[in-house]
Design a protein that fits this description.
Shape: globular
Largest sheet: 5 strands, antiparallel
Number of domains: 1
Strand content: 35-45%
Radius of gyration: 16 Å
Helix content: 10-25%
Strand order of the largest sheet: 1-4-5-6-3
CATH class: Alpha Beta
Structural class: alpha+beta
CATH superfamily: Hotdog Thioesterase
Length: 139
């Protein structure tokens, strides 16, 4: 059975592009994080207001992207998020970005985030409330 995915749609803005009129490579990481942000909202919590995460910080400890084809201004993108791995202190999210009109894969990659205590500045266990909400996406 394939992994459960979460998808969002994003239209490429002028500010996302470079002098060649294509999406600047660094913006793909912003697209990954936009999907992650909306995924958390879909799961029913916000890092800004949640009691569960108020003392936590979720820095990225690894980021990777592979570019296949350029996205251009005004392209409609489908950004797909999968939960690749959940460990005691880290989560690895996988991402695929497709051109909506053609289903063409434009880029793929991943982010590894670690739960960290804001006060101590050290990695800590991911709260069970978060792990429980991620479980349906890990099977």
């Amino acid at each position: 059975m394939p992994k459960r995915t979460f998808k969002i749609i994003y239209r490429v803005s002028w500010v996302d592009t470079d002098a060649a009129g294509v999406v600047h490579f660094s913006n793909y990481f912003r697209f990954f994080e936009k999907a992650e942000e909306e995924f958390y909202q879909h799961l029913g919590f916000s890092f800004a207001t949640s009691e569960v995460t108020k003392d936590l910080w979720f820095p990225r400890v690894e980021a990777f992207s592979q570019y296949k084809r350029p996205a251009k201004y005004n392209d409609l993108l489908e950004i797909e998020l999968t939960v690749e791995e959940v460990k005691e202190k880290t989560v690895k999210y996988g991402f695929s970005i497709f051109k909506k009109e053609t289903s063409e894969l434009l880029a793929s990659g991943y982010l590894v985030i670690v739960a960290a205590d804001k006060k101590l500045g050290k990695a800590t266990r991911i709260p069970k409330e978060i792990v429980e909400k991620l479980k349906p996406y890990t099977k």
